[in-house]
Amino acid sequence: MLSLLFLLSFSPDVLATHEADHRYLISGYVRDQNGVALRNATVHLEHKGGEKKKVSTNRNGYYEVLFHLHNENLGDEILVRFGDFEKRVKVAFDITDTVSTRGDTVDFGAPPQDTGIWGYLTGASLFIVVIALYVGFLRVKRKKNAVVRRKKRKRKRS
Fold this sequence. Notes:
- The protein is of the alpha+beta class.
- The protein has 2 helices and 7 strands.
- The protein has helices spanning 2-8, 116-157; strands spanning 23-29, 42-47, 52-56, 62-68, 77-82, 85-90, 102-105.
């Protein structure tokens, strides 16, 4: 079961049938000018050999596309477009490495918003408040139950 979940965590393109030394993975993030991820943004990619691909970003603004390239494609260019923005990637890899997935990262937009230490402190504070409220609820419930039990005992005596 665990191995099935592991396999499902990869995109179908990454599990392509061609050898690792024929895979060239272009991936990245698309964000707005404030660093907020853009969901369902369309990214167009084109290899100079004519292979064209189109992909949409996921909810985190992430995309990935797999090209089937060979050692002869070293130095080729891949055009990556999002809206009016274009970036060109020069295919680069170590020809002697036939195991690692070859690829490059192309991001669009501002870097992600950094929550910094305050984001973590706010999250921790919220967690502490929730725990405190739960503990308080349990105490009130326990006291209420104790009062109900005393009243029942008092009724039985009388």
